[in-house]
Amino acid sequence: MMLTKYYGPEVNDPVRLHVPAKRYLCSVKPAYQDRLSLRSLQSFHDEGGTMTEAEIAAFEAEANYEAALRIRAWDDAAKILGQHTPSIESFVPDLRAAQMKS
Question: Do 9 and 65 form a contact (C-beta atoms < 8 A)?
Answer without folding.
Answer: no
